[in-house]
Design brief:
Layout (H helix, E strand, L loop, with lengths): L1 E6 L29 E5 L4 E4 L5 H5 L9 E3 L5 H4 L14 E5 L1 H10 L15 E5 L6 E3 L2 E10 L2 E8 L2 E3 L11 H4 L4 E5 L12 H11 L3 E5 L8 H7 L4 E3 L5 E3 L1
Parallel strand pairs: 3-4, 4-5, 5-6, 10-11, 11-12, 12-13
Antiparallel strand pairs: 1-2, 1-14, 2-3, 7-8, 8-9, 9-10
């Protein structure tokens, strides 16, 4: 299984509009963070985790091939604002989109024209599947377990796939969820910034969670400009916990 980080930034992206901080002014490509999304691929299956407003920019450099499923973590714009841009992929057939009941309702509200009886020609052809926490499902040759994490007061989905667990926008997770991610070897989890936030983990929170999970390797995502320069932050972190960067590909 291979995972490509299409975007590792938070809702505003990096650089942030109007900001003159040293991160936003950095010339390093690792300090350019599009909105959070990832591509998970096996020899048979291609899955997209979230489809934010930078989707078009993220996939233009990639081979144009069928997407077998889109896994939505939650119904915030930075995680599904690019759904209309999946239209070119519909030439391969309907796009299967998987979302929990809250995220499903958000999609219906954001893209009502995709779900009416008489659809306008050319709109995205979406087959919407409702998923539920702790009820596994399979897409192609990938077994998927949705886990429940809390984005402030909002329950959202993390996804366990084999030895990989992908979590974004988490603030807390219940102890009863940990058995569902036990044995994770590669952990992807959010680390917004250094200072506390009401609905996101800090860098220290993310490190503590990685130690709690005991993953062999942890990659940090959904980071704002406030977290600092990519290389400087990574130099302060242990080798088994590192900030991911846009375009990075890892083998799980």
């Amino acid at each position: 299984m291979r995972l490509t980080f299409l975007g590792t930034g938070t809702s505003c992206g990096v650089p942030t509009i109007g900001c003159q901080c040293r991160v936003c002014q950095s010339t390093s490509p690792k300090d350019k963070r599009l909105r959070c999304s990832a591509l998970v691929e096996t020899e048979r299956t291609r899955l997209l985790i979230d489809c934010g407003p930078d989707f078009r920019q993220q996939v233009l450099p990639l081979p144009f091939r069928r997407i077998d499923g889109i896994l939505i973590t939650h119904a915030h714009y930075d995680h599904m604002g690019g759904m209309d841009d999946i239209r070119p992929y519909c030439q391969f057939g309907e796009i299967n989109v998987y979302a929990d009941p809250i995220a499903r309702e958000g999609l219906l509200q954001m893209l009502p024209y995709c779900f009416v009886e008489n659809r306008y020609p050319g709109v995205p052809a979406i087959q919407l599947h409702e998923i539920h926490f702790h009820q596994p499902f399979t897409i192609g040759d990938v077994d998927i377990m949705p886990v429940r994490v809390m984005h402030g007061k909002l329950p959202i989905a993390g996804y366990r796939m084999g030895r990989l667990t992908y979590i974004t926008d988490m603030k807390t997770i219940g102890d009863d969820e940990l058995p569902y991610i036990e044995g994770t070897e590669t952990l992807v989890v959010n680390a917004l910034r250094q200072k506390p936030h009401h609905s996101h983990q800090t860098l220290d929170d993310a490190v503590a969670f990685a130690r709690r999970v005991g993953a062999r390797q942890t990659y940090l995502i959904h980071s704002s400009h406030d977290i600092g320069l990519h290389d400087e932050v990574n130099a302060q972190l242990p080798p088994d916990i590192q900030m991911a960067y846009d375009g990075q590909t890892i083998v799980v």
